[in-house]
Amino acid sequence: MLKVDGINVYYGNIQALKEVSLEINEGEIVTLIGANGAGKSTLLKTISGLLKPKRGKVNFKGDEIAGKAAQSIVKMGISHVPEGRRVFSNMTVEENLELGAFLRKDKEGIKEDFNKVYDLFPRLLERKKQQAGTLSGGEQQMLAMGRALMARPRLLLLDEPSMGLAPLLVKTIFRVITEINETGTTILLVEQNAHMALSIANRAYVIETGRVVLSGTAAELNESEQVKMAYLGGH
Ligand code: ATP
């Protein structure tokens, strides 16, 4: 479904991604593991069109998308939930969700997706008239994910959805990610919480200082000494 092939991405003179390649098959949950600053967010931003690679290709369902406008990439079926949530604070929950669907014209489909999002996150339904800026961190994460789903993506990019959340909420968010995947959305998940990420993923890539250094099935990486030492607290 998605094929990233040898991309180099720079911020000015600083190279953040070096010859990065990865593949995601339809229906998978693929996770990207790596320390702070490894380049995970940069990779997601490149896929969603916020950054342009200097070299390399990004192919989505047969189309070359590297360098296309972010809006066209959303239209093609990729939604990005950025790190730190970024909801529109002065708008209500409902208005934020509406914005997620702004490129769509299928009124019926949009209505269906409102219901789907409220089924996944009943908390958002209870708070649909509330200003997004007054939601808790966990609720804002739910809203950011809900807003991305309103574009009816085929591929959902999630950047650190569990960051800063209490353990119980982390569990909820991971359960919902699995549910979203089961209803047919492919997922690329960036996580610091490697343990949780590997527990729901099919496959994983480990990225260190801008390079992919290891990849395999989630089960393989769970057993890898390198991963255990560096990302699973040595367990
Ligand atoms: P984190 O989990 O801390 O977000 P990450 O793996 O997502 O880490 P990136 O945010 O992709 O890492 O950053 C990769 C490298 O690029 C880092 O060295 C970072 O300092 C640098 N970088 C990121 N954004 C910019 C920017 N806007 N300008 C310059 N350098 C940047």
TrEMBL record:
Q: GO molecular function, one example?
A: ATP hydrolysis activity
Q: What is the lineage of its organism?
A: Bacteria, Bacillati, Bacillota, Bacilli, Bacillales
* Family from the record: Belongs to the ABC transporter superfamily.
- InterPro entries in alphabetical order: AAA+_ATPase (IPR003593), ABC_branched_ATPase_LivF/BraG (IPR030660), ABC_transporter-like_ATP-bd (IPR003439), ABC_transporter-like_CS (IPR017871), BCAA_Transport_ATP-bd_LivF (IPR052156), P-loop_NTPase (IPR027417)
Ordered alphabetically, the record's keywords are:
Amino-acid transport, ATP-binding, Nucleotide-binding, Transport
Record's keyword annotation contains ATP-binding: yes
Question: What name does the UniProt record give this protein?
Answer: ABC transporter ATP-binding protein
Which GO BP terms, alphabetically?
Answer: L-amino acid transport
